Amino acid sequence: MSFLPIPFTPKHPILQKYIRFYYFLKTENSDFETKYYAFPHTDTVLNIHQRANFEIRDNYTRVYEDQNIRYNSCIQGIREYPLLAHLQGKLDKITILFKPLGINHFGVNHFGDQYTSPSSVFTSWNNYPAYKEFLNQFYATNDTNNRLDIFETFLMEIYEPIDTDNLLVKAIDLLTSFNDNHSIEEISDRLEVNVRTLNRIFKRNLGVSPVTYRKVARFRYAMQNKLVENTMKRLTDIAYQSNYYDQAYFNKIFKGLTGSNPQHFFNQVDRLADSRLIFEFMK
Length: 283
Prior knowledge:
By secondary structure, the protein is α+β, with helices and mostly antiparallel strands. The protein folds into two domains: about 5-160, Jelly Rolls (Sandwich), CATH 2.60.120; about 165-260, Arc Repressor Mutant, subunit A (Orthogonal Bundle), CATH 1.10.10. The chain has helices at about 15-20, 110-115, 130-140, 145-160, 165-175, 185-190, 195-205, 210-230, 235-240, 245-260, 260-270, and strands at about 5-10, 20-25, 35-40, 45-50, 50-55, 60-65, 70-75, 85-90, 90-100, 120, 270, 275-280. It has a six-stranded antiparallel sheet.
């Protein structure tokens, strides 16, 4: 394991509604290098860097020291495959994990329309005068508490609450009600829209279809159930409680989302940030 991020829950109650947590990463050596797999989840991950550049490809992002670039940011939406992250050199960043739809309240309305790839350079805040001021203040101090205060002050300056489509909120609740396991057609009927409309609303706001959203959410639910809540549970129990059809289907979904079967996955991953981050570091 190459770094140990410490999670910080937002102080401001409004931010707590939309942000799961932040963490910092700062390396001191240009020879620093690490690679790890990050796995699909329903959060939107924003990384704000100083003196860094990006190489972004399908399911691969390299972040490397670049003294010619003062500030740079990248964002990762909901993905269906593991992301191989490759970090190199002196880096100084803050990572923010926005809850589903959370970032839409901070100048990124209709996220799926603005960012059509799972990983992208983030530019939505570049036209905010307060963003440049925030970056200068944030990177002028190394004190963690000062940095958190500066960042939260900036977020509250750009906070623009939107009337989140109540239909979308209800749909997410139904999709993540794993005990009931409603079909997409049943959810559409309950919400009195057709499946095409439901798909369009999801793609526009979250960048993925309802089917993909539920697949990823169920995977995270199973992972949380096994790794955090009770590490002694058998995989067959985890599959059943997460409402997978059977063990074979459970194995198939995990293979697609993690690149390995559940047994290997749970044996190899590293739990960081009080088990809030699940990575698999390359040996």
